[in-house]
Specification:
alpha+beta, two-stranded antiparallel sheet, two-stranded antiparallel ribbon, 2 helices, binds zinc ion, PP0621-like, MYND finger, membrane, transmembrane
Length: 94
């Protein structure tokens, strides 16, 4: 009878350890995946689109202004100028 309880205990401990190891393995795998994704982002970069000329370029080479992306300061300035002269649909009626 005692032996059965010991066996059950050992089984429970092994089961628990297995779950723990599996959890650690999953965590490790997830960390590796995020690491790889970060590496990829450093290589290619996340692509954004210039609001003015609609050309695609890596995020780290783009300029950001008010949540809009631009390929150069010239295009940013032109876009802002254009907006001042002809305000676009969403901010016309106030
Ligand atoms: Zn542009």
């Amino acid at each position: 009878m005692n032996l059965l309880i010991i066996r059950l205990l050992i089984f429970a401990v092994l089961f628990y350890a297995g779950l723990k190891l599996f959890g650690m393995y999953r965590q490790w795998q997830r960390d590796r995946l995020t690491q790889e994704r970060e590496d990829q982002q450093q290589d290619g970069g996340h692509m954004v689109r210039c609001r003015w000329c609609e050309v695609h370029l890596p995020e780290n080479e783009a300029l950001r202004n008010d949540g809009q992306w631009f390929c150069s300061s010239a295009h940013r300035d032109r876009f802002l100028q254009e907006q001042k002269q002809h305000p676009r649909d969403n901010d016309t009626d106030q």
